[in-house]
Amino acid sequence: MLTQLERSILAKEARLGVVGLGYVGLPVACSFAASGYDVVGIELRPERVAQINAGICPIQGHEPGLAELLAEVVAAGRLRASTDASDLGDRDVILVNVETPVDEEHVPQYHALRGALASVGRAMRRGALVIVESTIAPGTMRDVALPLLQQASGLTVNEGFFLGHCPERVMPGRLLQNLRSVSRTVGGMTPETARAMVALYRQIVAADLDPTDCLTAELVKTVENAYRDVNIAFANEVALICEAIGGDVWKVRDLVNKSPGRNMLLPGAGVGGHCIPKDPWLLVHAARGKDVPVRLVPAARAVNDGMPHHVTDMVVDALAEAGLAVAGARIAVLGYAYLENSDDTRNTPSEPLVQRLRALGAEVVVHDPHVAEYAGPLDDALRGADAVVLMVRHDAYQGLTLAPESGAGSRPVIVDARNVGLGAGAPIQRTIGRGAGVTPAAGDGA
Ligand code: SAJ
């Protein structure tokens, strides 16, 4: 049965289904449709289904090529969207791309995943290949996806249907490019399943496709993002030490990275986005109840989540040096997206900063050229400011000077939480990771 499926994949006769047409599922559906497959996309939101079937891309933000590709494959009749999961009944391969958030206690919330898999199980035909692309805690394929699909379909895995996990590695702003150019770990419940999956992804991925088992694939994705979070936390902790003892983390980092095999990342205002704050908790969850001391990954999360609060303290400290209380101070916060040159505000470090400053009685004005709600004139945000806080290194803020004529207050205090060099020349300024009174080296602020 699997050999026959692999043949139909290679002949592009296999019919595909994609469940969840969000920022991952939609580019995936478009890419497979563009490579010649017939694709049905299942999406809960009727308005999104209508937009897609009208050839209109519902994803905001700058995603090169996506809107054009969507219009092309819909017009060609190779992609259609539906709210009805029973439309998966004639699909040979079904990809699942639904959200897998964690709650306040960092426990994975699989409501969307369970709902999607139950619908797939009820609808899928005998011999179908189901591939979960969502990021999940290691062990989820074995403990959640497999039993749920068997129960919903009445079929037995590796006989009545086939199952795999191929985590995505896309990044907002580069969805189509990453999909094509970034390698994928291809986890199958059996090696033969992984082989058929490689045959499928080879149609849209130009990079390495590494076949393995499901548990390894689950571990690779959660570990690669926990790795990044721990490394960012290391840079942030060194920054805190440098500030406290009069060092300059930016100079230290440059020289540390001259040492072979070092690659210290960038300290900053904190860690946002849809992946890095969440995926480490999926990895930690896998070890729960096991007799293993998991200390570093949670500690790194605490360091990174503490950075917006540290920036708040820097603002309070700088205002105090200017003889100003926070209560009643007008504070301009530059940057609300979680990442430079992005409009994505999920888990943005700017949110806790703004909340804390307002709780302390400040009048906070937010500016962000990429976030519609805050994209007004920069001068309006700066006008009369007692303090200016740089939270995101948007290109629009590079080289920004705050001379009095720029409309900023007489001489606002400056807190530069991403070291873009905003504070150069300001009488009272703080830069993340730089001790009070430490002046940047010439040309620093890169
Ligand atoms: N950040 C730092 N210091 C750094 C790097 C990042 O403070 O040195 C902060 C950013 O400001 C941001 C957050 O961390 O708030 C996340 O930044 P990111 O560059 O990791 O971007 P993301 O969240 O879009 O991460 C995604 C991840 N990709 C997937 O999950 C598929 C991540 O694994 C990639 O490494 C990253 O994109 C990338 O660099 O492409």
List keywords for this structure.
alpha/beta; Rossmann fold; elongated; 13 strands; 2 domains; 446 residues; binds ligand SAJ; 14 helices; single chain; 8-stranded mixed β-sheet
**Spans with pLDDT under 50 lasting ≥5 residues?**
none
What is the correct CATH architecture of the largest domain? 3-Layer(aba) Sandwich
Q: What is the fold named in CATH at topology level of the largest domain?
A: Rossmann fold
Top-tier CATH class of the largest domain: Alpha Beta
From N to C, what is the helix and strand string? Answer: HEHEHHEEHEHEHEHEHHHHEHEHEEE
Q: What characteristic shape results from the CA principal axes?
A: elongated
Helix % is: 25-40%
Strand content: 5-15%
Rounded mean pLDDT score? 95
Question: What is the rounded distance between the termini?
Answer: 57 Å
Number of strands: 13
Summed up, the domain count is 2
Radius of gyration: 25 Å
Main sheet characteristics: 8 strands, mixed
Note the total helix count. Answer: 14
How are the strands of the biggest sheet laid out side by side?
Answer: 3-2-1-4-5-6-7-8
The structural class is alpha/beta
